[in-house]
């Protein structure tokens, strides 16, 4: 009986914390008093989570295989989804309880672009992990414009400026330059656009108010959607000239000798946020304990992946290579997961940060990450009107939920399984990373001032611009 | 005692009846199919070596055989994991019951991924469900429109209109309608299962309807006259006269339907990502590992073999219910 009471109590307290979190960014400080609350039994034990066959779904696979879900009393079924559209529809409709998701999907659904549903994320899944690959033919064209070192190897990072003359030649021959990305609101779309624009190539605008969601207005490079696992085959067939996608689909192109990765997203924006764990907001309201327990399991998995200087990565590669998860050959997955990356065939380089799952507070859902995605939506016209800085911050708080993250983290600390030093300092954490200029074009991003950030770009909408 | 036809030549050979004839019978019965298969295997392995894809060489019979064994091993391993899963669960439930006396434990089904064997079972279950429901709809419709010329003329345009529609055209519509109408907190069947079953049903019932109608419409005049003379009531007329004489045609329709159903199901599963052999193939294609092609080839052969067995099954059923046991069926 006393246990019953405890559960009710903690549930009420949880609700309170959720409200405190919603009040404002400074609300983070409101959590301290509640840190002692014990998370009750899960309200929903059987869960179905979706994922796309990419190495950055690893925290889900590890949480399953290492029994972290079961430790939390959760019986999780992981189900590969055909593409990002199917995945987000599954989460919105409730067929999936949560998923390995593109941050842009959770944000776009919440502001009503594409889907219309209140999605949120209490857990960020990884940093970096993508690359841009071009077909052998395009690479042949680019190579003369790429600076080489003394050994004749290309100097990285390679700017899209080297691609510009190739596009011009293609256009002269009456051929449009086409590239693939995985979804209109994907990190990949924004990274590819960022890289192209930084090299002086216009990737085209969206104009949703006119019903134009193809994003090819004024485009010098036409970007279209291709599901990740089909990227190599689509490029091999000549439908696209290159693509931006997560692993292992860039290394796959190298192994199959059909293309050359030219830049990793870590070189476009150092330690950029990648996937999130996305779910419906009302799922949390209905099942707060289940949600917190899910985050706990994912935190354990993320730490396992980075523990002892990536010591577990080899085992992780073995797990991911199983047909039910990513399914590509072990050697292909190992390339990026164990800290190296192969560019041109034989040109293997150390990329210790190619995938970060836990270090650098990779799992914390920073508001400033959400704001960055929103600025890119605005930059390329997916958000067609100027919005105030406050609007950006408001949406970020609606979608990114460090409050739930903190409840899970504090529970893990209370159980003695994690040290407080492994998490950001919750007393001072504002959810905004310090301003950084570690971008390929050297432009400074400060999440507190999204409108000022947009003003700095030559290509892209800013201020009250309209397409 | 009469031996089944298949064993007769062997028995006769053993008894020493006309060994030459028996040998040639055996050769026809066993040797020729074997030669056909061998030639096919040789052509396959020869061609496979020369087809280079970006995922490596096309798999030959040996690689496919190895993958088949691997898939069986994986199934075995998964079964063991499932057992461990249930044991862990029981331990956890017991521990929780101690901490929380109000707790009523429920055993959760295993959460691991379905293996190749599981996918075969799912596909078979789906195809039989769709086929049974389809037949229950198609045969009565066929009988009705076979009996009445007017009704036949009224319904025929609709049948002709929908018969040639590809299952892949139905699929998006069915998916949307099912997800709109089939909403429940704890559904008895997965939506994906219902979608593929309905798609299969929609694409496969037409040949049963048409064949049944033709079978009923062409019942011999003599039999119809008998029915008239005896003044049979409509129910007896249908069950004693029409259906028995239309049985060969009905079964021809059913066999075509089941064949189509099986083909359609694999395509539907591939497209709608509903569990089954189609999903297995699609997943392998997406994996793009060096084993993918061999695994897909295993699935292709298994699909072909099951299709063949399904057809034989219908044939046996037809022989069983057909009144004319001497009719040659193939």
| Residue share in helix of chain A | 25-40%
Tell me, briefly, the overall form of chain A.
globular
Helix and strand content put the structural class of chain A at alpha/beta
Could you give the order of the helices and strands of chain B?
A: HHEEHHHHHHHHH
> What is the tally of helical segments of chain A?
18
Catalogue the unreliable spans of chain A: 1-36
* Number of beta-strand segments of chain A: 16
- Number of beta strands of chain B: 2
Descriptive report:
With 467 residues, chain A is α/β, with parallel strands linked by helices. Chain A contains 18 helices and 16 strands. In chain A, 39% of the residues lie in helices and 15% in strands. A five-stranded mixed β-sheet of chain A has the order 2-1-3-13-4, with helices on both faces. In chain A, strands 10-7-11-6-12 form a five-stranded mixed β-sheet, with helices on both faces. A two-stranded antiparallel sheet of chain A has the order 5-16. In chain A, a hairpin with a 4-residue loop joins strand 8 (205-207) and strand 9. The longest helix of chain A has 23 residues, at 288-310. Chain A is globular, with a radius of gyration of 22 Å. In chain B, strand 1 and strand 2 (56-57) form a beta hairpin. Chain B has 330 residues and is mostly helical. Chain B is built from eleven helices and two strands; from the N terminus they run ααββααααααααα. Chain B starts with 7 loop residues before the first helix and ends in a 9-residue tail after the last helix. The longest helix of chain B has 39 residues, at 61-99. Chain B has helices at residues 8-15, 19-50, 61-99, 116-147, 149-162, 167-181, 191-217, 221-230, 234-272, 277-287, 292-321; strands at 52-53, 56-57. Classes of the chains: A alpha/beta (467), B mainly alpha (330). At the A-B interface, strand 2 and helix 9 of A face helix 3 and helix 10 of B.
């Amino acid at each position: 009986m006393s246990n019953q009471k405890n559960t009710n109590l903690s549930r009420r307290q949880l609700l309170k914390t959720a409200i405190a979190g919603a009040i404002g960014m400074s609300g983070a400080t409101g959590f301290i008093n509640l840190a002692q609350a014990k998370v009750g039994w899960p309200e929903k034990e059987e869960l179905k989570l979706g994922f796309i066959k990419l190495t950055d779904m690893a925290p889900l696979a590890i949480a399953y295989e290492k029994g972290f879900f079961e430790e939390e009393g959760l019986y999780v079924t992981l189900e590969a989804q055909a593409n990002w559209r199917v995945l987000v529809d599954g989460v919105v409709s409730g067929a999936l309880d949560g998923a390995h998701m593109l941050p842009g999907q959770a944000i776009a659904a919440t502001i009503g672009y594409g889907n219309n549903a209140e999605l949120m994320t209490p857990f960020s899944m990884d940093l970096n992990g993508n690359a841009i690959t071009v077909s052998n033919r395009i690479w042949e064209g680019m190579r003369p414009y790429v600076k080489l070192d003394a050994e004749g190897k290309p100097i990285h990072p390679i700017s899209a400026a080297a691609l510009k003359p190739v596009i011009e030649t293609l256009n002269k021959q009456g051929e449009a330059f086409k590239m693939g990305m995985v979804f209109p609101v994907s990190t990949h779309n924004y990274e590819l656009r960022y890289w192209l624009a930084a090299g002086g190539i216009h990737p085209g605008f969206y104009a949703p108010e006119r019903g134009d969601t193809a994003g090819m207005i004024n485009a010098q490079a036409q970007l279209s959607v291709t599901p990740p696992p089909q990227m190599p085959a689509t490029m091999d067939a000549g439908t696209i000239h290159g693509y931006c996608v997560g692993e292992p689909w860039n290394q796959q192109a190298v192994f199959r000798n059909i293309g050359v990765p030219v830049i990793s997203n870590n070189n476009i924006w150092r330690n950029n946020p990648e996937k999130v764990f996305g779910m419906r907001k009302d799922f949390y309201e209905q099942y707060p304990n289940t949600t917190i327990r899910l985050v706990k399991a994912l935190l354990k998995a993320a730490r396992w992946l980075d523990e002892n200087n990536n010591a577990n990565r080899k085992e992780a590669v073995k797990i991911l290579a199983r047909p039910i998860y990513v399914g590509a050959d072990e050697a292909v997955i190992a390339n990026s997961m164990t800290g190296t990356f192969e560019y041109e065939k034989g040109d293997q380089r150390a990329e210790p940060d190619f995938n970060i799952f836990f270090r650098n507070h990779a799992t914390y859902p920073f508001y400033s990450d959400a704001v960055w995605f929103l600025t890119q939506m605005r930059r390329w016209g997916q958000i067609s009107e100027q919005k105030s800085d406050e609007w950006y911050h408001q949406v970020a708080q609606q979608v990114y939920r460090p409050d739930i993250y903190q409840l899970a983290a504090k529970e893990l600390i209370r159980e003695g399984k994690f040290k407080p030093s492994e998490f950001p300092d919750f007393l001072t954490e504002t959810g905004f990373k310090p301003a950084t200029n570690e971008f390929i074009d050297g432009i400074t991003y400060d999440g507190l001032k999204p409108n000022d950030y947009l003003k700095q770009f030559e290509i892209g909408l800013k201020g009250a611009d309209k397409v | 005692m009469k031996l089944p036809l298949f064993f007769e030549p062997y028995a006769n050979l053993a008894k020493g009846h006309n060994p030459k004839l028996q040998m040639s019978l055996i050769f026809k019965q066993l040797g020729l199919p074997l030669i056909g298969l061998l030639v096919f295997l040789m052509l396959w392995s020869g061609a496979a070596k020369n087809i280079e894809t970006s995922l490596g060489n096309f798999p030959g019979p040996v690689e496919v055989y190895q993958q088949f064994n691997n898939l069986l091993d994986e199934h075995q391993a998964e079964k063991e994991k499932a057992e461990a899963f249930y044991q862990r669960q029981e331990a956890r439930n017991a521990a929780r019951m101690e901490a929380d006396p109000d707790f009523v434990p429920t055993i959760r089904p295993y959460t691991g991924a379905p293996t190749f064997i599981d996918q075969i079972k799912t596909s078979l279950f789906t195809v039989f469900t769709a086929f049974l429901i389809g037949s229950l709809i198609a045969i009565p419709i066929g009988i009705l429109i076979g009996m009445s010329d007017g009704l036949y003329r009224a319904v025929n345009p609709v049948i002709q209109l929908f018969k040639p529609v590809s299952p892949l055209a139905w699929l998006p519509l069915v998916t949307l309608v099912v997800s709109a109408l089939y909403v429940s907190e704890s559904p008895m069947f997965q939506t994906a299962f219902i979608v593929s079953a309905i798609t299969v049903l929609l694409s496969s019932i037409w040949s049963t309807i048409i064949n049944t109608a033709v079978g009923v419409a062409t019942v011999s005049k003599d039999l119809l006259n008998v029915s008239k003379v005896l003044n049979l009531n409509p129910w007896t007329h249908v069950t004693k006269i029409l259906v028995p004489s239309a049985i060969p045609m009905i079964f021809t329709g059913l066999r075509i339907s089941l064949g189509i159903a099986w083909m359609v199901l694999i395509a539907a599963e591939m497209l709608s990502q509903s569990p089954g052999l189609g999903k297995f193939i699609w997943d392998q294609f997406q994996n793009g590992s060096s084993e993918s092609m061999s695994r897909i080839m295993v699935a292709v052969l298994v699909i072909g073999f099951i299709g063949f067995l399904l057809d034989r099954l219908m044939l046996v059923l037809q022989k069983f219910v057909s009144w004319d046991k001497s009719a040659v069926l193939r």
